[in-house]
Design goal:
The complex is a heterodimer. Chain A is α+β, with helices and mostly antiparallel strands. In chain A, 31% of the residues lie in helices and 23% in strands. Chain A has 2 helices and 4 strands. A 4-stranded antiparallel β-sheet of chain A has the order 2-3-1-4, covered by helices on one side. Chain A is globular and about 30 Å long. Helices cover 39% and strands 14% of the residues of chain B. Chain B has 2 domains: 123 residues, Alpha-Beta Complex (Aspartate Aminotransferase, domain 1), CATH 3.90.1150; 256 residues, 3-Layer(aba) Sandwich (Aspartate Aminotransferase, domain 2), CATH 3.40.640.10. Chain B is built from 11 helices and 13 strands. Chain B is α/β, with parallel strands linked by helices. In chain B, the strands form 3 sheets. Chain B has a 7-stranded mixed β-sheet, with helices on both faces. In chain B, strands 9-10-13-12 form a 4-stranded antiparallel β-sheet, with helices on one face. A two-stranded parallel sheet of chain B has the order 1-11. In chain B, helix 1 runs antiparallel to helix 7 and helix 2 crosses helix 7. The chains are: A alpha+beta, B alpha/beta. Chains A and B meet through helix 1 of A and helix 2 of B. The complex binds pyridoxal-5'-phosphate. Pyridoxal-5'-phosphate binds next to helix 3 of chain B.
């Protein structure tokens, strides 16, 4: 299983919003370019630890951000 | 120099605004929302910070519903044109509007939109019920000025909001004069759509403004006004249906938003109650001082709890533009005479077409400067008797 997962966002505002919420909650995250095989959009995505996946989703939902696409990051 | 033209644009700005803009130009520079390199992401962080702090000031929960435009006028056009597209649309507005509302409405009349204008009293006041009386089955929008840029009158927005809510009609509030200068809570006031400008009470730079959309407002009702690049869904040749990109095509004014974020943080730290208290003190002094001068007529409400710090007056038998010219040349006082882009308001106040002289002290104007302005008007009023 891959160590990382990527949260796919629709806009850069959403990327920054996600970063803001997850950083405030103390998660280990990084903004990365959206992997080509996951989206044709050239923007940013949010990399998280795979082990944090459920907790991250919960933190985002609590803040009112519904992000449904979280994919494993293949390196 | 005494600057009493804050209703046009506030100046000087807090030092943190210059610093944030200088820092942005020097160290960030990139375009928010366009690339994914670290400078662009930093620009996006700053823009997001501006959304968040403005949402907070206005009582909104979702920062993604704070949309940036170049000014209030653009945002007003966006909503007015967007919500009145259906055939036979009717709109209710007031006799206290700025041309940023009246001109788009007049333009839409050409394509069949009907407009009801609620008359207001000669001090600009009105009862919310007079809005309700004009609602029809085809009323698609109620648009009202929150506070007059001519004489400071604050309209009963909360009561109008309750009426709009009861009838299921969107309420658009022009808060160009009140954002940062008067308490606003979009939830408690039932405001669906609120337009602000960055360069007045919010103390930010010109070229910034926007639209705040209530958390419960159905976004499907409002189509985009300007279509173009957003940096998102670039594979599509149609506008994305994503917030905030749906309403933000085109390169944003990132440096301006850096300044605006700084100014609104400054305001929040300083405290809105404190701002209102300082402005009321200055307004009270101005109204009392001007009202006492022989031959000077103050226009608008006298009660401080129904007005912002915008005071209009005339000196008998001297045209307002001459008064303003003398104030500038002889007394070093900057103010704005004329119709203030609001002929509809001046008709309501009975000052059309001659206009008024407008003193608009910002919250940080020293009271001595207001006293000097009153003295200057006294001198001009006395001089008129000698010519
Ligand atoms: C009441 C009112 N509405 C709208 C505007 C338009 O604002 P802007 O020039 O920033 O578009 C102004 C100021 O000019 C105003 O005072």
């Amino acid at each position: 299983m891959s160590e990382f997962a990527v949260i796919l966002v629709h806009t850069t505002s959403e990327a920054i919003f996600t970063e803001r919420i997850l950083k405030a909650a103390g998660f280990d995250i990084k903004l990365i370019p959206t992997p080509r095989h996951l989206s044709s959009d050239c923007g940013s995505a949010v990399r998280i630890l795979m082990s944090d996946k459920e907790d991250c989703l919960e933190a985002l939902n609590e803040a009112g951000l519904v992000l449904d696409r979280i994919e494993p990051l293949e390196i | 120099m005494i600057y009493l033209d804050h209703a046009a644009t506030s100046w000087p700005k807090p030092a943190c605004v210059h610093e944030a803009m200088e820092r942005f130009m020097r160290d960030v520079g990139a375009s928010a929302g366009r690339s994914a390199h670290r400078l662009s992401l930093e620009a996006e962080r700053i823009r997001f910070d501006a959304r968040e702090v403005i949402g907070c000031l206005l009582g909104l929960n979702d920062p993604m519903r704070v949309i940036f435009t170049p000014n209030a006028t653009t945002a007003l056009n966006m909503v007015i044109h967007g919500l009145l597209t259906r055939e036979n649309s009717h709109v209710v507005t007031t006799g206290m509007e700025h041309n940023a509302v009246m001109r788009p409405l007049r333009a839409l009349e050409q394509s069949g939109v009907t407009v009801s204008i609620v008359p207001c009293q000669s001090d600009g006041m009105m009862h919310a019920t007079s809005i309700e009386e004009r609602i029809k089955p085809n009323t698609r929008l109620i648009v009202v000025n929150h506070a007059s840029n001519v004489c400071g009158t604050v309209l009963p927005v909360r009561q109008i909001g309750e009426i709009a809510r009861r009838h299921g009609i969107p309420l658009l509030v022009d808060a160009a004069q009140t954002a940062g200068a008067w308490p606003i809570d979009m939830h408690a006031d039932h405001i669906d759509l609120l337009v602000f400008t960055g360069h007045k009470g919010l103390l930010g730079p010109s070229g910034t403004g926007g639209l705040a959309i209530h958390d419960d407002f159905n976004l499907d009702l409002l189509p985009p006004f300007i279509h173009g690049g957003t940096g998102s869904q670039s594979e599509e040749e149609t506008q994305p249906n994503l917030m905030p990109d749906k309403y933000e095509a085109g390169t944003p004014n990132s440096v301006g938003l850096a300044g605006l974020a700084a100014s609104v943080h400054y305001l929040m730290d300083y405290g809105l109650e404190q701002i209102v208290a300082q402005e009321q003190k200055l307004t009270s002094r101005l109204i009392d001082g001007l009202d006492e001068i022989d031959g000077v007529h103050v226009i608008g409400p006298m009660e401080l709890n129904q007005r912002t710090a915008v005071v209009s007056f005339n000196i008998e038998s001297i045209p307002c533009s001459e008064v303003a010219h003398h104030l500038d040349q002889q007394f070093d006082i900057m103010c704005r005479p004329g119709l203030h882009c609001a002929p509809r308001t001046h008709r309501t106040l009975g000052t059309y077409p001659d206009g008024t002289v407008r003193f608009a002290p910002g919250p940080f104007v020293p009271i001595e400067e207001v006293d000097r302005a009153i003295e200057a008007v006294t001198t001009l009023a006395e001089q008129r008797l000698n010519v």
